[in-house]
Amino acid sequence: MSNKNINIKDVAVAAGVSVTTVSHVLNEVSYARISPKTRDKVRTVAEELGYGPNRLAQALRTQRTGMLGLVSEDIATTPHAGRIILGADEAAKARGYNLIVINTSGSASLESRQADIAALLDRRVDGILYATMYHRNVELPANLGSVPSVLVDSVATGGNITAVIPDEEGGARAAVEALLAAGHRRIGFLNNTDDVPATRQRLSAFRATLNEAGLDGDAAPVESEPSEVQGGYEAARRMLSRKDRADMPTALFCYNDRMAMGAYRAAAELGLSIPDDLSIVGFDDQELIAANLYPALTTVALPHYEMGAWAAEHLIDAVEGKTDLSLMALHPTILGCPLVVRDSITAPRQ
Amino acid sequence: MSNKNINIKDVAVAAGVSVTTVSHVLNEVSYARISPKTRDKVRTVAEELGYGPNRLAQALRTQRTGMLGLVSEDIATTPHAGRIILGADEAAKARGYNLIVINTSGSASLESRQADIAALLDRRVDGILYATMYHRNVELPANLGSVPSVLVDSVATGGNITAVIPDEEGGARAAVEALLAAGHRRIGFLNNTDDVPATRQRLSAFRATLNEAGLDGDAAPVESEPSEVQGGYEAARRMLSRKDRADMPTALFCYNDRMAMGAYRAAAELGLSIPDDLSIVGFDDQELIAANLYPALTTVALPHYEMGAWAAEHLIDAVEGKTDLSLMALHPTILGCPLVVRDSITAPRQ
DNA sequence: TTGAAAGCGCTAACAG
DNA sequence: CTGTTAGCGCTTTCAA
Questions:
Q1: C-alpha closest to that of B71 among B57, B84, B62
Q2: DSSP H or E run through A111
Q3: φ and ψ at B261, to 5 degrees?
Q4: End-to-end CA distance of chain B
Q5: Which DSSP state fits B272?
Q6: Of A100, A289, A35, A44, nearest to B120 (Cα)?
Q7: What is the distance in angstroms between the Cα of A203 and the nearest Cα belonging to chain B?
Q8: Of A158, B33, B170, B293, which one's alpha carbon is 20 to 30 angstroms from that of A100?
């Protein structure tokens, strides 16, 4: 157990050596030539005393804190932020780093976000992770650039900072392909109305995937509403009511799980049973919804954990000079969105 | 904008004074007698150069890092952890502190949790917040005691550490009272099967509140299942099927929102309309569920944000010698669980 | 009203 | 193979 009150000098005295020797053996300095007995002695004594180096002093001396700053948007709203933090924390911990987490609001002023960064800089973090809660373009505080940084789940408007984002198109493609594979030919898309990359990319992947399957993707029905439960409900009502039964969609691809939840309600009201009368696939894999709807929702998972881990890993590489982030900054890194199969897709009725 | 590369000496030189003077004016040292012109000069120069003190060096010297460790269980599972972090972060930020966040698993070994604490201690955090994801008794790593600490959402098995927890009884009482106020007399409780304080306390408050209203609380129907959607569904099925209509409950108090979600499904299957045929009240206020069920769920909110803020606030007070935590350790501090009114309660049918 | 200098705990050049 | 020492950037005692 680490004991705050004892320092390297105490260890040196107790082991009957100099602090240099202690430092050398504990840090396993390559060029240090120290006898095995001395090594053992030092290690034993350090262990006995419960010595742990004062990371502050270490940092002051080496100009390396082993701390990463993580500024995260809207930490309290969804578990998404938690997944990013978890991924980053585990990757960081594995390499001896820790995270200073600061919350910011997606709608916070540039100055307040700048102040957050400044606080991190004053603490001499080795690098900064900047995480947003959904994939979009962000305007970054100028002081972010003064230390290695990587963006999680967004790309910078300037575009010259390393970023890791989800593969929206691949995810949408996987969702639609799952529907096609089940035999569906009339597939509708319940899209979001926000002007964010996901809206555009999921839509274009939706159409493209249908086209590639020999269907008319451009004619496929799309209804757009705000990406909440209520929006999903309304979009689904419109889509499922406007046509006569013959060309009504037999399957729905929903922009996210919340909209899918709304679609479930619309289907219930219209007497449509899921998945027998209507197959549904969502996006996001929000456990609370996806796993708990009845029937459980097949959906596409966003790689929040993976993005957090990727970002921490590469940030640390950069800090340690093992990677050049500016090279990676040219194009965002894209991480896959796997399909999570549950029970909301089946073959269409004949 | 804070500029890492310039230090107090640079400011001193640029202002034509000594570092002592700079330190004195920037820290507003009370006993320092410095002429207004010098003060202004120093401040202006510091501002111009974008000087911000190196917090590491400051910490090394003052033995105060201005950092709090937050070890949080299962950060990625629910937004609960996020709310605690947010509360703690905002309270901390307001007083110039920052948070080092470390994730731990509720099921992690004592040693691994001890290692997490040790990492925090090596970083010389001024205090530690230990947050669990639901209210229970935890066995704490022994090294936690070596620095001021407070427990969030749990009490220690030893029981001698300051803790802040939700008012389970008050929350349950508020829920049942809302049902009573709407005119219900036959109220059932869908309880959790886990042996945690919430299970016991919500149950006893349920019974007590009914008794105080002149009903027979001890005879009131209770069904217990694991506190997930499926459990809620099964408990509700049992409760709503076993009796003849005349003494079937007209209202259900659910252990949490997830169980309430299951109860919604059971009600739908049984042809019971909410709230007309059956009023429901939940617990937790998990936005994603509560606000999105149809009809929206009236529920009781857990004060995660408030507990996080309270904990940070009092921890900082202790660190700064403004409070004696050991006094507060005698009894946990209990924070209210307010009722969040939505649309799932109405008067019973005549 | 201001400044010199010690020292927080550590690492790393350099000396032996 | 091991030890001496300077110095990371800051606060604070003491002296002027």
A1: B84
A2: helix A110-122
A3: -60, -40
A4: 68
A5: P
A6: A100
A7: 25
A8: A158
Q: Which nucleotides of C are covered by protein (CB under 7 A)?
A: 1-5, 7-13
- Comparing every residue's Cα with the C1' atom of nucleotide C6, the nearest one is B61
Between CA B316 and CA B297 the distance in angstroms is 37
Is A95 near chain B, with CB under 8 Å? no
Please give the Cα distance from B342 to B344 (Å, whole number). 6
Phi, psi of B154 (to 5 degrees): -165, 165
- The one-character DSSP state at B96 is T
Encoded amino acid at A25, one letter: V
- Mean per-residue pLDDT over chain A, rounded: 93
Question: Which nucleotide is nearest to B32 if distance is taken from CA to C1'?
Answer: C1
Q: What is the mean pLDDT of residues B260-284?
A: 97
Average pLDDT over residues B183-210: 97
Q: What is the DSSP letter of B98?
A: E
- DSSP letters spanning B258-270: HHHHHHHHHHHHT
pLDDT at B256 > cutoff 90: yes
Q: How far is CA B337 from each of CA B135, B164, B213, B303, rounded to the nearest angstrom?
A: 13, 13, 21, 6
Say whether residue B265 is in contact with chain A using an 8 A CB cutoff: yes
**From B103-107, B135-139, B235-239, the region with the lowest mean pLDDT:** B135-139
**DSSP string of B100-137, one letter each residue:** EEEEE-TT--HHHHHHHHHHHHHTT-SEEEEEEEEEEE
Q: In a mutagenesis test of the B interface, which of A77, A95, A288 is the best target, namely the one with the most B β-carbons within 10 Å?
A: A288
pLDDT of A18? 87
- Whether residue A301 lies within 8 A of chain B, CB to CB, comes out as no
Report the C-alpha gap between B86 and A103 in whole angstroms.
7
Whole-model pTM?
Answer: 0.94
**B15 CA: nearest nucleotide by C1':** C2
User: Are A124 and B54 a contacting pair at CB < 8 A?
Assistant: yes
Quick one: which of B84, B261, B301 has its CA closest to B171?
A: B301
How far away is chain A from the Cα of B90, in angstroms, using its nearest Cα? Answer: 8
B246 has a pLDDT exceeding 90:
no
Q: What is the distance, to the nearest Å, from the Cα of residue A111 to the centroid of all Cα atoms in its chain?
A: 25
Those residues of chain A that have pLDDT short of 70 are 1-2, 243
Q: Which residue minimizes Cα–C1' distance to C12?
A: A20
Report, as an integer, the average pLDDT of B36-46. 91
For chain A, what is the radius of gyration of the CA atoms? 26
Q: Which residues of A touch B142 (CB under 8 A)?
A: 1
Separation between Cα atoms, residue B297 and residue B289, nearest integer Å: 8
Calculate ∠ Cα A104-A109-A112, nearest 5°.
Answer: 60
Return phi, psi of residue A219, to 5°.
-95, -5
Are residues B306 and B335 in contact, defined by beta-carbon separation less than 8 angstroms? yes
| Window A142-171, strand D contacts by Cβ < 7 Å | none
Task: Order the strands of the B187-192 sheet from edge to edge.
Answer: B222-225, B187-192, B251-254, B279-281
Q: What pLDDT, in 10s, does the model give residues A170-214?
A: 999 999 999 999 999 999 999 999 999 999 999 999 999 999 999
**CA–CA distance, A121 with A128 (Å, rounded to integer):** 9
